[in-house]
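Final report, Chapter 2: Outcomes

The project's central promise was a pipeline that accepts a single protein chain and returns its three-dimensional structure in a standardized token representation, suitable for archiving and comparison. That pipeline is now operational. To close this chapter, we reproduce one record exactly as it appears in the project archive, with the input sequence first and the structure output second.
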Amino acid sequence: MLHTLHSPPIVEVTLWITAARLATLKAAGEPIPRQVNLEALVDTGCTFTMVDPHVIALLGVEPTGEWREIHFIAEHPFRAPVYEIAWGLRAMWSQYRWLEFNVVAAPVMGVGMYIGRDALSGMRFIFEPPSFSLEFK
């Protein structure tokens, strides 16, 4: 469970490659990308979890071939590529709980990631301004 006194609800997350991608890179003797630490906004109005394309580029992952239509970032809807990554939340006991999850590469403002309703469906989010809690179910 995470608690903070931030308003809006912002958490620190770490992004990385999936376990399958890690195994593939190790087997091929390829370099392993570093984990990326960033702030993420818990956004209950966001359908899909979105990561800034510059952050996705740091991980060196390729799109899955799927696309999602995004409506709220621009005046006109646009299609954004989907990537499979792993991302972790640091729990109070300093251990990471990793999720392998599809995210959309789309511009985000003020943070590196928006945690959308797709990810929140597997979490418990309680927002009582100025604090909140976020935990895995």
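Archive annotation: Strands lie at 2-4, 10-16, 36-42, 50-51, 67-70, 78-90, 96-105, 113-115, 123-128, 131-136.
This record, like all others produced under the grant, will remain available to the consortium after the project formally closes.
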